[in-house]
């Protein structure tokens, strides 16, 4: 009999009662929908910042590699040599321009015959002397002319 009571009780439907949890809500905007657009924008900004940081790091590494390649002793030597050669050329040009040769004097207003000329990397440098000073003209490959006037009378020193 006991067995029958146990079986009968087991067959009785059980009543389950459930109630919603009042204080529960999803924290993620992906689930609750509140503030979803700002959530997506935040994620997008983080991704863009990461990409920009990676790009800057890559560019910095490339720049460092290039700088290291140009900072060898051979490159330093060649740059120094090139600077000295250009300095010597400009010194020789200035010495030639300021040399006291009486046969190279033009009239005060006209530049008729040049006192000297020099071709430098497809640019022509010509200078004239007149009573006011030295006029140097640089003509580039395109034919554009630049003139520089050096007034010699203002550079005279008194005794």
Question: What are the main properties of this structure?
Answer:
159 residues, single chain, four-stranded antiparallel beta sheet, alpha+beta
Topology:
Blueprint: H1 2-11, H2 29-32, H3 36-70, H4 73-97, E1 116-120, E2 123-129, E3 133-139, E4 145-151
Antiparallel strand pairs: 1-2, 2-3, 3-4
Describe it:
The radius of gyration is 44 Å and the shape is rod-shaped. The protein has four helices and four strands, in the order ααααββββ. 47% of the residues lie in helices and 16% in strands. The protein has a domain of 75 residues. The chain has a four-stranded antiparallel β-sheet with strand order 1-2-3-4, covered by helices on one side.
Summarize the structure.
This protein is α+β, with helices and mostly antiparallel strands.
**How far is the first residue's CA from the last residue's CA?**
146 Å
**Helix and strand element order:** HHHHEEEE
User: Which percent range describes the beta-strand content?
Assistant: 15-25%
Q: Specify Rg, calculated over alpha carbons.
A: 44 Å
How many E strands?
4
Number of helices: 4
Unreliable stretches, pLDDT < 50, 5 or more residues? none
Shape: rod-shaped
Side-by-side strand order of the widest sheet: 1-2-3-4
How much helicity do the residues have?
A: 40-55%
Which class of secondary structure composition applies to the elements? alpha+beta
Write down the overall mean pLDDT.
Answer: 81
Give a quick account of the main beta sheet: strands, pairing sense, barrel closure. Answer: 4 strands, antiparallel
